[in-house]
TrEMBL record:
Gene3D superfamilies: ATP-grasp fold, B domain (3.30.470.20). One of its GO terms (biological process) is SOS response. Signal peptide: none annotated. Residues 100-251 form the ATP-grasp fold RimK-type domain. One of its GO terms (cellular component) is cytoplasm. It comes from bioreactor metagenome. One of its GO terms (molecular function) is ribosomal S6-glutamic acid ligase activity. InterPro entries: ATP-grasp_RimK-type. This is ATP-grasp fold RimK-type domain-containing protein.
């Protein structure tokens, strides 16, 4: 069997225990011997002699960078891990592709106090720390992203990507008078049938970056337009499981098996 590591932050292990066990147990079916390690316990000097690949679920792109330096194959790779955990870098990337995203204010001089502004952490996930800005006294452009409020927002589309292919998509719908549509925060979720034009946008992204297993989130507007929202690096399958779709684990593990097959 090919030995690999699964990395989590200590704070995330308990709430993801069932997913971790599922990953490790199903890995055996694909000739993958997976072992859990906490991010704080990594010893880079001995990893490359014992393990051939790593699944980094810590959301720390510095870990991925260092693992790739010692020659390990990491799922996801550094470039995507970084974009998935730094929203401003993700918007800069969309800028190079000419893909639309919400208005981002990059300095206090750009901010308009008469408009609704959304404040969110650059490295945030799950809707944590997302608020409507109440005052301009404690702005931190190093830690946060400041976006224009989208008034004609319908919901949040997530495209699930495995091996650079769309494998599923869902739409998350916020509760009335809520700005967040996150399933973990009470939003409703449905399977979503994307259009040909929407697929073209996703394909444009995927032709410029490799995603082993991740999410691409877009905001759906009332006129049918979509705006890029964020990448999800350590994407899970809770919403899909809720909707009765349970094939992401086998697709991901098969992708890993093919990627590491023949490694010496």
């Amino acid at each position: 069997m090919i030995k690999g590591l699964v990395i989590y932050d200590e704070v995330d292990v308990e709430k993801n225990k069932s997913y971790i066990n599922w990953l490790i147990e199903d890995g055996i079916k694909y000739n993958l011997d997976l072992e859990l390690i906490l991010a704080k316990d990594i010893n880079y000097r001995v990893l490359d002699s014992k393990f051939k690949f790593v699944i980094n679920r810590s959301r720390d792109f510095r870990i991925t960078y260092n693992l790739e330096l010692v020659g390990l194959r990491v799922f996801n790779k550094f470039n995507f891990c970084r974009l998935g955990n730094d929203k401003l870098e993700a918007y800069n990337f969309m800028e190079t592709l000419d893909i639309k995203y919400p208005k981002v204010y990059r300095s206090i001089e750009e901010l308009n106090s008469n408009k609704k502004i959304i404040e969110k952490p650059k490295n945030g996930h799950g809707g944590i720390g997302v608020n409507i800005l109440k005052d301009f006294k404690s702005l931190d452009f190093n830690k946060n992203v400041y976006q224009g409020f989208i008034g004609d927002y319908v919901g949040d589309i997530r495209f699930y990507i495995i091996n650079n292919n769309i494998v599923n998509s869902v739409i998350r719908l916020p509760k009335e008078d809520e700005i967040l549509s996150n399933f973990s925060r009470g939003g409703n979720v449905e399977l979503y049938k994307y259009s040909y034009l929407q697929k073209e946008i996703i394909d444009k992204i995927l032709s410029n970056i490799d995603i082993d297993f991740g999410g691409i989130d877009f905001l759906l507007l009332e006129n049918g337009e979509i705006l890029f929202n964020e990448f999800e690096d350590a994407v899970g399958s809770r919403m899909l499981s809720y909707l009765g779709v349970n094939n992401t684990m086998e697709l991901f593990l098969e992708h890993i098996r093919k990627s590491v097959k023949g490694m010496k």
